[in-house]
Design a protein that fits this description.
Helix content: 40-55%
Largest sheet: 5 strands, mixed
Oligomer: single chain
CATH class: Alpha Beta
Number of domains: 1
CATH topology: Collagenase (Catalytic Domain)
Strand order of the largest sheet: 1-2-4-3-5
Number of helices: 5
Distance between the termini: 19 Å
Shape: globular
Number of strands: 5
Radius of gyration: 14 Å
CATH architecture: 3-Layer(aba) Sandwich
């Protein structure tokens, strides 16, 4: 099972983002979830993710990661294009410092987190969040910081700002 993973990076962060590493962690996530579909990961700035958050969630603030699934509900694993994950490099850098690990580790976590949302995981209840965090730890192979530091807004909108339309 092969997944096509496209990595896009805002020019400001182009030299700092470990693209090959993100592709590996994205593929590992898809394999662990027995899923096969294309997806796009876009690394951007706080300013740009704030605009997206305002447009899609009516929240005028930056966030660490947004997920834009191609499905509204139902069977996300039956798609050929899963959706888009948008990550703020600047939020990732701050959160990495807070967690006491490297930015690459934080980008890995946010990549896994976003893909799990594309696959239908939620973190809106304590039970769902615990389930999601167990999956993240299993995929990453290490403990992760407290879930309270991560808020992901899921968009079921069919408007997808950065991926391919399929």
């Amino acid at each position: 099972m092969t997944s096509s993973i496209e990595i896009r990076v805002h020019p400001k962060f182009s030299s700092r983002v470990p693209r090959a590493r993100l592709i590996r962690v994205a593929r590992k996530t898809m394999r662990a979830q027995d899923a096969s579909a294309a997806l796009t990961i876009y690394i951007t700035s706080d300013a740009e993710i704030r605009k997206l958050n305002r447009t899609f969630h009516a929240t005028d603030a930056p966030t660490d990661v947004l997920a834009f699934p191609m499905h509204s509900a139902g069977h996300p694993r039956n798609l050929t294009y899963l959706g888009d994950v948008v990550i703020s490099y600047e939020r990732a850098r701050v959160q990495a410092r807070q967690a006491g690990w490297r930015i690459g580790d934080e980008l890995d976590l946010l990549t896994v987190h976003g893909i799990l949302h594309l696959l239908g995981y939620t973190d809106e209840t304590l039970r769902a969040r615990a389930r999601m965090w167990r999956q993240q730890e299993k995929i990453l192979g290490k403990p992760i910081p407290s879930p309270s530091s991560f808020v992901l807004r899921d968009s079921s909108s069919s408007r997808r700002p950065y991926g391919k339309n399929r």
